[in-house]
Design brief:
alpha+beta; 8 helices; 19% strand
């Protein structure tokens, strides 16, 4: 991995601007940096995704990602943003939207690798007490919980990392010494994403979705997806917990209102179900009643 000091990106053929995020896209998995195009517009590309960190238990079998024990991934967002995501066909990272000199709300997004991610939370098939409006960032009754198939985790070339806790914008495996290296210009967000091993990621995820004593679960778990999540095959539903958010989704061109609590929104040639549920009702129960999840609490 290239650990040379990170320089401020130089914009070709134009004025040099000071970046607001410590990240330079790479052209290969060895970490060679690319020069930034001053004429680039959003969506901004993050370049080649980083590799995994070293596996310190490589002699042992690699644990598979427990997709069968996962009901779904959820991503909370403002209802006004759903139409744009559908048009783009992706959920995108802050960098995909803001680029190298944009506005980032958290310091960890700028210095810890968080601005390069789309965040989801994982719900296990046994997590029947998970509330419909979700938990943590992206959760309140006026937001929409987008329901994603966990099959995205096994897609080739889909880069993601996992933690059973909320890392507050930092990539998993990042230590204070790594953040000091970022501050000193020796590393950037790409390097931080290259800290977690595949084994560490899979173990953290599997710990997240397993059944917990007395029906508990890790409500602040997170998955960080590199740059974007394609929605065409992944978006399986949307859960609204306020009348206003449901009404906003029903105004999307091509949406269909079936009743006061059910409708659909378009995703390519598909019609994705939308439901309006009480904020503290069981998410899995609501998904099953709407036919979004099967009898085993799995979203297709």
């Amino acid at each position: 991995m290239n650990t040379a000091k990170v320089q401020s990106p130089k914009l070709e053929g134009g004025e040099k601007k000071q970046p607001t995020i410590m990240f330079t896209p790479r052209v290969n998995a060895e970490g060679k940096k690319q020069r930034l195009d001053p004429n680039a517009t959003k969506p901004y590309s993050q370049g080649v995704a980083p590799p995994f960190g070293p596996d310190r238990a490589s002699s042992k079998p690699m644990p598979d990602v427990n997709v069968n024990g996962t009901a779904c991934l959820v991503h909370g967002t403002m209802p006004e943003f759903v139409e744009g995501a559908i048009k783009d066909g992706h959920l995108g990272s802050a960098y995909r939207r803001e680029g190298p000199t944009g506005n980032y709300s958290r310091d960890a997004d700028k210095r810890g690798g968080g601005g390069l991610a789309v965040y989801t939370r994982a719900v296990g098939t046994e997590h029947t007490k998970w509330q419909a409006m979700g938990y943590g960032v992206g959760s309140n009754e006026n937001k929409v919980q987008l329901i994603l198939s966990p099959e995205i985790l096994n897609k080739p070339n889909h880069t993601w990392r996992a933690s059973s806790t909320d890392n507050m914008g930092k990539a998993p495996g990042v230590l204070p010494a790594d953040l000091a290296d970022v501050k000193n210009g020796k590393k950037d967000g790409w390097d931080l994403w290259a800290k977690q091993s595949e084994r560490g990621r899979n173990q953290a995820f599997n710990e997240t979705v397993k059944a917990q004593p007395k029906g508990g679960f890790a409500e602040n778990n997170e998955q960080m997806h590199w740059e974007k999540i394609p929605l065409q095959d992944s978006l399986k539903g949307a859960v609204c917990t306020s009348q206003s958010s449901f009404d906003t989704l029903m105004k999307i061109p091509g949406a269909t209102r079936k009743s006061d609590t059910e409708g659909t929104i378009p995703m390519g040639e598909k019609h994705v179900p939308v439901i309006f549920a009480s904020k503290d009702t069981s998410l899995l129960g609501a998904l099953k009643r709407a036919g979004i999840a099967n009898d085993s609490n799995q979203v297709g």
